[in-house]
Write a structure and sequence with these properties.
130 residues, four-stranded antiparallel sheet, elongated
Length: 130
């Protein structure tokens, strides 16, 4: 979005009384390389930290609840395996295609959880605006 503040203002202006808007963005801390201000995704003009996204949303809405999207179940196990060196092991074992041909279709909505934190480790942020 070229002007996210203006878009949030527009969303809030058309929201019915008592309504809620759900807005999400990726977490730069889990998307970009360590220390970088942005990932290489050309479609993302800006990637936010939790406090930046909260401030943007609070400028447009009276109430903001900020949640994080996290891996659970299968994807949480995969994250642990990656931290233990799985990315270097599966090519040496010759099981990359076989493993991921089975692993990827097994991923479901149950492998993600929306919760309050810790937001620095969230994949994405979801702001509930009212």
């Amino acid at each position: 979005m070229q002007n996210p503040a203006a878009i949030l203002d527009q969303i809030m202006s058309v929201l019915r009384p008592g309504g809620r808007a759900y807005v999400s963005t990726p977490n730069v801390l889990t998307l970009a390389p360590e220390g970088a201000e942005k990932s290489g995704n050309p479609w993302h003009l800006k990637e936010y930290r939790a406090e930046e996204f909260r401030a943007l949303c609070e400028a447009a809405a009276e109430r903001v609840e900020l949640l994080g999207l996290f891996h659970t179940r299968t994807l949480a196990l995969h994250d642990r395996a990656l931290n233990l060196g799985w990315d270097s092991a599966h090519p040496r074992l010759g099981v990359t295609k076989t493993f991921y041909d089975r692993f990827v279709p097994a991923i479901s909505s149950r492998d993600f959880e929306l919760r309050a934190g810790p937001l620095d480790r969230a994949l994405d942020f979801v702001a509930v605006l009212a």
